[in-house]
Amino acid sequence: MSAGLADVIAAETVLSDVDGLAGRLVIRGYALVELAGHWRFEAVAHLLLEGAFDNLPEVDAFTLLLGAARLSVFRSLDPSLASLPLYDAVRAQLARLPDGDDLDTAVLLMAAPAVVLPAMLRLQAGKAAIAPTPSDSHAADMLAMLGEGVADPARALALETYLVTVIDHGLNASTFAARVVSSTEAGLMSAVLAAMGALKGPLHGGAPGPVLDMLDAVGTPANAEPWIAAELAAGRRLMGFGHRIYRVRDPRADALKAALVRLTASLGHDGASDRSRLELASAVETAALSALATHKPDRPLATNVEFYTALLLEAVGFPRDAFTSVFATGRVAGWLAHAREQRLRGKLIRPKSLYVGPVPAEAA
How confident is the model at residue 248 (pLDDT cuts 50, 70, 90)? Predict the structure, then answer.
């Protein structure tokens, strides 16, 4: 038995490869560094879906389909869901989509979080939801719906880099949940809802927000070393460091840090607060890595994706309680690709369990 199924191979996939020892993430033959900041989200999503549907069109036509799907989702929006906690509201709206196994269903499910999340944030703030613009890019449209109908190009590029960076990552908990459900021949909506349920847990999708809480508590770069020393002495975890798979620096952290540096540089005077935040984060990162290497020399704890996720999503305008939903907006493309791969190439997932409970007297 392997607790947590560690190192158990449960599927063959062409979608992504996570090399934890080398610190490398490959998305369908491309290193992450080749995609993040260079490819549109729509293009990477299309790359993942190649072979999943017989009627998948070329990238440009797929982009138009996704834009039209955002408008369709907006028209079916239920404003009463804004009374729910944010993540639950997004999930509840997705649950109202068709549970088919075709391309149209997949595109609707991919479009939905990008529309529902900004709409619910605005409705919860007492503002009217803004309709999508189908001709905009997925990331730019998402920010336009969040703000006042126009997205800053630099922030849109930063968000797009984030969505690409988190689009797929091997057989993580939410992706495995999607594959398990798809293996039963349930529809794509059921698979995505299962994945969202897994993502809601704090051990999977809930870490970015607390990174900002940590930075708030540190306050200034000069306070980074003593604050971290005190946290480690008290036995508390430093948010944004360490990963179940990576034994070196998470390559996604580098991609997001580069995107954040580009964003703050492009904003000029308007980016002063973001640059100050980045300087604080850099000081905390340096102090944390040094302290962790001394405090836990036998356990590699490097910077992970959550650290710079928190800073980037804050810089583009999302509140902390939205971070997990933004993650789902990018990862849903990976969930859908894995669900289809499992349906087309796999079989019903049915592992065994080892019974360790009491034995009836007659069997003893």
Answer: low
